[in-house]
């Protein structure tokens, strides 16, 4: 019996306080485990585990795919680190899309994916955001005065210990020589979309997210773009998992690489890798 295809998203509850990171970690943990339990033991069409930053574009593409094929993918969004570990624990994903190479490397090392299917799907940019009600840009160069601009506020970003956007952000801030001044002011979120929400709600004056996240949220504006050479290239690899039902997984996996899908991704701000 096939499970009903639905869209599952991570919890977006957050608070701007010293306990922000803990609360977000708990929220995402519950969501990820819930997703695993919801689909455990069921075979559903195209169960896709994807980086949270892909939500808007992938939701759009899912609707197109359903219209064309009659099959509605099951979409589970979260931090790439959390998704990779959930797959490792047996969560029934057919396709995995990571926001960086490291977590796809992890999946490959642990024999969770079909290595021959691994493909670089998309690229992205790293930006500094601020609430849309504010003004003024930040010149993201060596020695940038972001610490002074933050004052007593927090810098929202993905957890730099494991979330790809946070890892890219930490690397960029280190390259600019300002990480040591800012690390004590970081509001670490469990995925990039929760970091986005902290700024959108005015709970943090600045945040580090992908360009596509900033484009998707009207309550924020881009205050600066990190130099491309300040961090590793942002690449989203995709692969079919070892446990996949290939009859369901392969058509959607191939659809993601079609000109139609690529055009949609670019409309949402993604680039070719």
From TrEMBL:
<feature type="binding site">
    <location>
        <position position="165"/>
    </location>
    <ligand>
        <name>molybdate</name>
    </ligand>
</feature>
<comment type="similarity">
    <text>Belongs to the bacterial solute-binding protein ModA family.</text>
</comment>
<feature type="signal peptide">
    <location>
        <begin position="1"/>
        <end position="45"/>
    </location>
</feature>
<feature type="binding site">
    <location>
        <position position="80"/>
    </location>
    <ligand>
        <name>molybdate</name>
    </ligand>
</feature>
<feature type="binding site">
    <location>
        <position position="192"/>
    </location>
    <ligand>
        <name>molybdate</name>
    </ligand>
</feature>
<keyword id="KW-0472">Membrane</keyword>
<dbReference type="InterPro" id="IPR005950">
    <property type="entry name" value="ModA"/>
</dbReference>
<feature type="binding site">
    <location>
        <position position="53"/>
    </location>
    <ligand>
        <name>molybdate</name>
    </ligand>
</feature>
<dbReference type="InterPro" id="IPR050682">
    <property type="entry name" value="ModA/WtpA"/>
</dbReference>
<comment type="subunit">
    <text>The complex is composed of two ATP-binding proteins (ModC), two transmembrane proteins (ModB) and a solute-binding protein (ModA).</text>
</comment>
<dbReference type="GO" id="GO:1901359">
    <property type="term" value="F:tungstate binding"/>
</dbReference>
<keyword id="KW-1133">Transmembrane helix</keyword>
<dbReference type="Pfam" id="PF13531">
    <property type="entry name" value="SBP_bac_11"/>
</dbReference>
<keyword id="KW-0812">Transmembrane</keyword>
<feature type="transmembrane region" description="Helical">
    <location>
        <begin position="26"/>
        <end position="45"/>
    </location>
</feature>
<dbReference type="GO" id="GO:0030288">
    <property type="term" value="C:outer membrane-bounded periplasmic space"/>
</dbReference>
<feature type="binding site">
    <location>
        <position position="210"/>
    </location>
    <ligand>
        <name>molybdate</name>
    </ligand>
</feature>
<dbReference type="GO" id="GO:0015689">
    <property type="term" value="P:molybdate ion transport"/>
</dbReference>
<keyword id="KW-0732">Signal</keyword>
<keyword id="KW-0479">Metal-binding</keyword>
<dbReference type="GO" id="GO:0030973">
    <property type="term" value="F:molybdate ion binding"/>
</dbReference>
<protein>
    <submittedName>
        <fullName>Molybdate-binding periplasmic protein</fullName>
    </submittedName>
</protein>
<keyword id="KW-0500">Molybdenum</keyword>
<dbReference type="GO" id="GO:0046872">
    <property type="term" value="F:metal ion binding"/>
</dbReference>
């Amino acid at each position: 019996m096939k499970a009903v295809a639905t869209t599952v998203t991570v919890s977006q509850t957050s608070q701007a306080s010293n306990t922000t990171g803990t609360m977000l970690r708990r929220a995402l943990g519950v969501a990820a485990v819930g997703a695993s339990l919801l689909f455990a033991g069921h075979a559903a069409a195209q169960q896709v585990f994807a980086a949270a930053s892909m939500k808007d574009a992938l939701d759009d593409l899912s609707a197109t795919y359903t219209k064309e094929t009659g099959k509605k993918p099951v979409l589970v969004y979260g931090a790439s680190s959390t998704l990779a570990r959930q797959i490792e624990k047996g969560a029934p994903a057919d396709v995995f899309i990571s926001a960086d190479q490291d977590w796809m490397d992890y999946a490959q090392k642990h024999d969770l994916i079909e290595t021959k299917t691994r493909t670089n799907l998309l690229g992205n940019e790293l930006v500094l955001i601020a609430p849309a009600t504010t003004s003024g840009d930040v010149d993201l160069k060596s020695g940038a005065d972001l610490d002074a601009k933050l004052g007593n506020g927090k810098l929202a970003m993905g957890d730099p210990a494991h979330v790809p956007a946070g890892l890219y952000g930490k690397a960029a801030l280190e390259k600019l020589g300002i990480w040591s001044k800012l690390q004590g002011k970081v509001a670490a979120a469990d995925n990039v979309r929760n970091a986005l929400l902290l700024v959108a709600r005015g709970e943090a004056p600045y945040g580090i997210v992908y360009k596509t996240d900033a484009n998707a949220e009207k309550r924020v504006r881009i205050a600066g773009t990190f130099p491309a050479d300040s961090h590793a290239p942002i690449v989203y690899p995709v692969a079919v998992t070892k446990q996949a039902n290939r009859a369901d997984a392969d058509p959607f996996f191939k659809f993601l690489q079609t000109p139609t899908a690529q055009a949609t991704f670019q409309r949402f701000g993604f680039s070719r890798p």
